[in-house]
Automatic annotation (TrEMBL):
Residues 8-170 form the AAA domain. This is AAA family ATPase. InterPro entries: AAA_dom, DNA_Partitioning_ATPase, P-loop_NTPase. It comes from Halobellus litoreus. It holds the Pfam family AAA_31. The lineage of its organism: Archaea, Methanobacteriati, Methanobacteriota, Stenosarchaea group, Halobacteria.
Length: 252
């Protein structure tokens, strides 16, 4: 891990079901392919999609950590399994809780604790990725205000286009702004990076950027570069596969 503070990126859904969880996992995998250590923290308490990528029991989950000051972040982290060819790692802290604890985890004091957990992750990992729902709850506000970069994630549709503008406005309302716009499952005219659709959809088959087609792997590599401060490569450039090429995209 580098001596500098980790890059903290919040992937914010412009609308429900935008694909922030999948985007965060794929980008984390791309960074792991380049030897980076990445943490993914879950602010999407309602959908709890990050839990689908974890095998076995989740205890404690992220909501338990934010309502209990005595637990360290490490107790809630689970490693995603990659092949030996991947030099880095991805550790995730998903939300997986009953409604009663979800309600407590959305309180202001819990949001402050969430910010503290983000800072802890930033001190221990090369990169921190935040899975954030549309801005409508305290933990989502805490996530975007703690992030170094905010990436709006939107589906490539008319609904996605309209939602991006609303998300920009909401981010301004809470005192921050977007660094880039990411379209998924196709291309939006306003997107800085577009990730094409892939046939790989099952959680137990994700990430697909290692074995997927060149277009998908290339887009994930460009997105990894963008959220870590590297230059966005030409999408038409020839690619040799993610494991061989992502290091040339991601700025150190």
């Amino acid at each position: 891990m580098s001596e500098t503070r980790a890059n903290v990126t919040a992937f914010v859904g412009a609308t429900g079901g935008a694909g922030t969880t999948r985007t965060a996992v794929e980008v984390g995998a791309a960074l792991a392919a380049d030897g980076r250590e990445t943490a993914i923290l879950d602010a999407a308490f309602a959908t709890q999609g990050l839990a689908d990528h974890v095998e076995g029991r989740i205890d404690p989950d992220l909501t338990a950590l934010v309502v209990d000051d005595d637990r360290d972040l490490s107790t809630g982290l689970s490693e995603l399994g990659f092949s030996d060819a991947v030099a880095g790692r991805v550790a995730v802290c998903p939300a997986n809780a009953p409604f009663e604890r979800l309600a407590r985890a959305k309180r202001v004091e819990a949001a402050r604790r969430f910010e503290s957990l983000i800072a802890t992750a930033a001190a221990r990992f090369d990169h921190v990725l935040l899975d954030v729902p549309p801005i409508a709850a305290n933990q989502a506000v805490a996530a975007v205000n703690a992030a170094d970069r905010v990436a709006i994630v939107a589906p490539a549709s008319e609904r996605g286009t309209e939602a991006v503008q609303r998300c920009h406005e909401r981010l301004v309302d809470v005192g921050t702004e977007a660094s880039l716009v990411v379209s998924v499952r196709g291309d939006l005219e306003t997107a800085d990076v577009s990730v094409p659709e892939t046939d790989v959809t099952a959680a137990d088959s994700v990430p697909a950027c290692f074995d997927g087609d060149d277009a998908f792997a290339g887009a994930v590599g460009r997105l990894a570069a963008a959220v870590t401060g590297g230059e966005i490569a030409d999408p038409e450039a020839e690619r040799d596969g993610l494991l061989e090429s992502v290091g040339g995209l991601v700025g150190r």
